[in-house]
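This is your field. Have a critical look at the following sequence-structure pair:

***
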Amino acid sequence: MGIKQISVFLENNAGRLAEVTGCLADAGINLRAISIADTAEFGILRIIVDRQDDALGALTDAGFTTRENDVLGVEIRDVPGSLAELMKLFRGTDVNIEYLYASLEGREGRAAVIFKLSDFEAGLKIIKENGITLLERF
């Protein structure tokens, strides 16, 4: 009941992000959410797309190293403090939020937040028990 995310491992060289986005564009893949983290030598591009299998195929055919992960997407109010309220739900639990990012996808007055959890099922339970709107797709 999560969302599939693609992680693309990239050398930290000029033009690599353009190569990935160009590959996806050529395949007609639409990005729904995107995040990148880097170090001096490599980066991890995390994306959610409209056509997962086609994106994985195009990226693999182009020689990119990818991994697929389950992440949670939730919808929160787009007001100050909403993310803090969401994070408080995990305080004092054994569920660690490994990373999170936001998406432009969302209804007016609402924000979409995507996050990777150390324990997916336990995190899903926390979300459901607290009435947070779970996003099933983008």
User: Anything to note?
Assistant: Helices lie at 16-26, 52-61, 82-88, 120-129.
